[in-house]
Specification:
The complex is a heterodimer of chains A (115) and B (117).
Chain A: E1 3-5, E2 10-14, E3 19-21, E4 24-26, E5 33-39, E6 46-52, E7 59-61, E8 64-69, E9 74-79, E10 88-95, E11 104-105, E12 109-114
Parallel strand pairs in A: 2-12
Antiparallel strand pairs in A: 1-4, 3-9, 5-6, 5-10, 7-8, 8-9, 10-11, 10-12
Chain B: E1 5-7, E2 10-13, E3 19-24, E4 31-37, E5 44-50, E6 53-56, E7 65-68, E8 75-79, E9 88-95, E10 107-108, E11 112-116
Parallel strand pairs in B: 2-11
Antiparallel strand pairs in B: 1-3, 3-8, 4-5, 4-9, 5-6, 7-8, 9-10, 9-11
Classes of the chains: A mainly beta (115), B mainly beta (117).
Chain lengths: 115, 117
């Protein structure tokens, strides 16, 4: 069975602060895929990143960066210099194969960035 | 293409009534997925289609739930004899699955919120 745990239910920061969202996963598969999505108040989940289990390189995209560590089964997400527009619910997800639609999602972390 | 569209955005119904939600995916996407999302939780996979074929429906919550994608384009999710526990957001997503690529990227709709009184 697969499981994704996002232990932080809610995080509140002040604009320009850095913030890290934690994601810990459980799987018995040797090949798997990890994802992060953003769900703003409008409701649509927006894809942010995909990472397969064989690629442990960290990735940076603008103010966003991701730290994948297989040794600790974690895939953490950092927002640098947070902005009010970053306020949303962020979900981490795990898929056993390339069919990302069957992913197991965590329960999300609600991020509030205050001006 | 304006993305994945879902209709209606909100539906309020009385217990015991049937409801139907529609999802229009991105036109070139061959896969379509349905999810349920309850407050404070992540999306829960229900079923999916590849073109018009429903490839998995074992995760539909009960036999009151059914989905169709008759021509491989739009899809409907029907809930019969609704119960208060069915109140949730129902999300649709689509993707283009290619044999040679890695995990497919999903595009989600904004969801249909169901309230059962």
């Amino acid at each position: 069975a697969q499981k994704v745990t996002q232990a932080q239910t809610e995080i509140s920061v002040v604009e320009k602060e850095d913030v890290t969202l934690d994601c810990v996963y459980e799987t018995r598969d040797t090949t798997y895929y990890l994802f992060w999505y953003k769900q703003p108040p409008s409701g649509e989940l927006v894809f942010l990143i995909r990472r397969n289990s064989f690629d442990e390189q960290n990735e940076i995209s603008g103010r966003y960066s991701w730290n994948f560590q297989k040794s600790t089964s974690s895939f953490n997400f950092t927002i640098t210099a947070s902005q009010v527009v970053d306020s949303a619910v962020y979900f981490c997800a795990l898929s056993a194969d390339t069919n990302a639609g069957k992913s197991t999602f965590g329960d999300g972390t609600t991020l509030t960035v205050k001006p | 293409d304006t993305g994945v569209s879902q209709d209606p955005r909100h539906k309020i119904t009385k217990r015991g009534q049937n409801v139907t939600f529609r999802c229009d995916p991105i036109s070139e996407h061959n896969r379509l997925y349905w999810y349920r999302q309850t407050l404070g939780q992540g999306p829960e996979f229900l079923t999916y289609f590849q073109n018009e074929a429903q490839l998995e429906k074992s995760r539909l919550l009960s036999d009151r739930f059914s989905a169709e994608r008759p021509k491989g384009s739009f899809s409907t999710l029907e809930i019969q004899r609704t119960e208060q526990g069915d109140s949730a957001m129902y999300l649709c997503a689509s993707s283009l699955a290619r044999v040679s690529s890695g995990a497919n990227v999903l595009t989600f709709g904004a969801g249909s919120r169901l309230t059962v009184l």
